[in-house]
Specification:
Oligomer: heterodimer
Number of helices of chain A: 11
Largest sheet of chain B: 7 strands, mixed
CATH topology of the largest domain in chain B: Rossmann fold
Strand content of chain A: under 5%
Helix content of chain B: 40-55%
Helix content of chain A: over 70%
Strand content of chain B: 15-25%
Shape of chain A: globular
Number of domains of chain A: 1
CATH class of the largest domain in chain B: Alpha Beta
Number of helices of chain B: 16
Largest interface: A-B, 55 and 46 residues
Radius of gyration of chain A: 19 Å
Number of strands of chain A: 2
Strand order of the largest sheet of chain A: 1-2
Number of strands of chain B: 16
Distance between the termini of chain A: 43 Å
Number of domains of chain B: 2
CATH superfamily of the largest domain in chain B: Response regulator
Distance between the termini of chain B: 74 Å
Structural class of chain A: mainly alpha
Shape of chain B: globular
Chain lengths: 287, 390
């Protein structure tokens, strides 16, 4: 592998990493808040992309209006899922996991009759490529970096600088104590579901013009997001950022040097090694 | 105190179970049950759904004309289809179910890995297998009742001879294919063929079917400076992403897709301009033969959405009906014997089963294979080639 190729693959790795970060954000938020792994994250990502397809591409609305609509619609859906599934189950971790898995299966299976059999596409929103150190990167991929950064900053500010964010942190630390202090746990949980789903939708909405759309399109991002949040530390936003970047770089540099399969294996070897020395991940902590 | 499951969760499970469950059929007199094991959900569903629908449409049209006459008696044709999700274990289970529970004697299987895993079940049960699959050794004397129903790499790669004659500047070829039996065999056959023609194969890459970001492996591939990239055996959606991302990384050469692929799906994802000059097997938009125009209209009317993949997936039904008519028997062995000699019409012209000189057995479908070039985003028919192993 030449130095030029290494640099090119590192650039591709950063672009890949920013996509991964975006995918992992909503997942890590929901785990941090409620200690549940949202198996429906991939399916919501898929729905977020299809909202763009129908509102932007088919409906002719401006892309950013469709993007916001996607986040709002899926955010409301997340709130309804909390009301109709999570809350009646009383927050039980295992039943919630199974229920979210069932929701995913249902949404994916219903996707083919609803959205059609053929892969769908959304035309580029930011056409063209930019040459960075000899490697062509599409503008739409580059746009992910500022959008991911904006979402990370917004999430950070919301969690750390607002009353609702403080309530979320309080629930994360001790649900009963937070309730005794007057925090409405149901409302805040509903909000966490809404934000988690809206972030998954944002991720899908951003990826829609870059990749293809099909009902199973959320499976691979879900797997990557799981790897990232385990790598970064469950529930940690900085962990998701670092984990996403590391995985993006491994996927790109190793795949360029050795091929896709070794890169896939190496990402798991890397995680196992890391977890042996740091079982809580890079930024995680023992509860 | 007993806790009751919330109604919403119970309802969700019930609906999910209904959606994913395979269809059950009741037995009826004077019915020929034709089994289909194909991916009806998951990433390969865009192949499996037209496989089922194409067969259903052909059978419905025959049923509407009174049914299929065998030995002076009219039979209604019925499809019994199960979803294998392109998962080998599911594929084995669905075929076993078709044979043991449904009593089906004629089974069409889609997917190389699934068809290979069912070789023994088909052979032991004496069922007739009509495959839509790329897999090494599938068409061979050890599978006496397995008939391959669309052109496979040993047939379609013959198009490289035309490329060699018409585009002599292309010298370096790279291949990218799915990381499974189908992809491995396709690349193996194509590599051997193009090397014999004097091409230099500079890269061979395999990807998981769920992959969407091809940038890293394309970067590795493009470092070898290929003149053409073959995407043999890759689904249309993946090809769209490969073409789009390779162009973004600066690839200026040709794409070659010598398998059943809908280039309009590729162009939709990759952009019209990026697919310009791409060579495709099995998909033509212009000039569209009348037979295909009619099929497109009937298919769209019946199912609401056109799927060009259905074109080649009509072959198992056409072949089966022709062989039963010739055999005038419902015994799989007799139908198989008729299959080896029957000539029938498919959507591209006259078809028969041959290929004995290559496979050792004449059980590979042979018909004038269409090849197109994408011009202004439209797959334009270049020529039809007879497979080399007639």
């Amino acid at each position: 592998m030449t130095f030029a190729l290494f640099v090119q693959s590192a650039i591709v790795g950063v672009s890949l990493g920013s996509i991964y970060i975006l995918m992992a954000l909503g997942l890590t938020l929901m785990f941090g808040m409620m200690h549940i792994i949202n198996f429906a994250h991939g399916a919501v990502y898929m729905l977020g992309a299809f909202v763009i397809y129908y509102i932007f591409f088919q409906g002719g609305a401006p892309y950013f209006a469709a993007f916001v609509a996607s986040m709002i619609l899926l955010g409301v859906f997340g709130y309804l899922v909390e009301r109709s599934i999570y809350r009646p189950i009383k927050g039980g971790i295992e039943p919630t996991l199974v229920a979210l898995l069932a929701l995913t299966t249902f949404l994916q299976a219903a996707g083919y009759p609803v959205f059609g059999q053929l892969d769908k596409h959304v035309p580029p929103v930011f056409p063209g490529t930019r040459n960075i150190l000899g490697v062509g990167i599409s503008v739409e991929r580059l746009m992910i970096i500022p959008v991911a950064a904006a979402l990370v900053i917004a999430l950070y500010l919301f969690i750390n600088k607002t009353r609702l964010g403080a309530a979320m942190r309080a629930i994360e630390q001790d649900k009963e104590a937070a309730a005794l202090q007057g925090v409405n746990v149901h409302v805040v949980n509903g909000l966490a579901f809404a934000i988690g789903f809206a972030l998954a939708a944002a991720s899908g909405a951003l990826m829609a013009p870059i990749f293809k759309l099909d009902p199973m399109m959320g499976e691979q991002p879900l797997l990557k997001a799981f790897i990232i949040i385990i790598l970064g530390g469950l529930g940690s936003v900085p962990g998701a950022i670092l984990g996403g970047l590391m995985l993006g770089l491994i996927d790109s540099i190793v795949a360029t040097a050795l091929g896709a399969e070794p890169a896939f294996l190496l990402s798991f070897v890397f995680i196992i090694m890391l977890l042996l020395f740091r079982p809580t991940g890079l930024f995680g902590y023992a509860s | 105190m007993k806790q009751r499951a919330p109604l919403a969760v119970v309802a969700l499970f019930a609906v999910a179970a209904l959606v994913v469950a395979g269809p059950g059929r009741s037995a009826a007199a004077d019915v020929i049950k034709f089994g289909i094991s194909t991916p009806l959900s998951g990433p390969a569903a865009p192949w499996g759904i037209p496989h089922k629908q194409a067969t259903e449409l052909i059978f419905e049209e025959i049923n509407n004309q009174g049914g299929l006459e065998v030995g002076g008696k009219k039979y209604r044709l019925e499809v019994v289809a199960y979803d294998h999700k392109y998962v080998i274990a599911e594929g084995v289970a669905t075929v076993n179910r078709l044979i043991a529970k449904d009593g089906v004697k004629y089974i069409s299987i889609l997917g190389g890995a699934v068809a290979k895993a069912n070789e023994e079940a088909i052979n032991e049960s004496g069922a007739l297998g009509l495959t839509l699959a790329y897999a090494e050794g599938l068409v061979s004397p050890k599978n006496p009742l397995t008939f391959q129903c669309f052109p496979a790499p040993p047939e379609t790669t013959t198009f490289w001879k035309w490329i060699k004659e018409q585009h002599p500047k292309i010298k370096r070829v790279a291949s990218i294919a799915p990381n499974d039996d189908t992809g491995w065999w396709s690349v193996k056959v194509e590599t051997a063929f193009v090397q014999k023609l004097g091409y230099e194969v500079v890269a061979k890459e395999f990807f998981e079917r769920s992959m969407t970001d091809f940038n890293p492996i394309l970067l590795r591939m493009l470092a070898q400076k290929p003149d053409a990239i073959s995407v043999m055996a890759s689904p249309a959606g993946s090809v769209g992403l490969i073409v789009k991302q390779a162009r973004e990384l600066g690839f200026k050469g040709r794409f070659v897709a010598l398998h059943q692929i809908d280039s309009s799906v590729v162009a939709g994802i990759a952009g019209r301009e990026n697919t310009e000059g791409m060579w495709v097997h099995g998909y033509v938009q212009t000039p569209l033969p009348d037979k295909l125009k009619s099929w497109q209209q009937r298919y769209t009317k019946r199912f609401g959405e056109w799927n060009a993949t259905s074109i080649d997936f009509t072959n198992p039904a056409f072949a089966f009906v022709a062989a039963v008519r010739k055999a005038q028997s419902l015994e799989p062995k007799k139908i198989g014997e008729a299959m080896r000699t029957v000539e029938f019409d498919n959507l591209w012209g006259k078809a028969h089963f041959g290929g004995k000189d290559y496979y050792g057995v004449g059980q590979q479908i042979i018909y004038p294979m269409p090849f197109s070039e994408v011009r202004d985003g439209v797959a334009t028919l270049l020529l039809q080639l007879t497979p080399p192993h007639n």
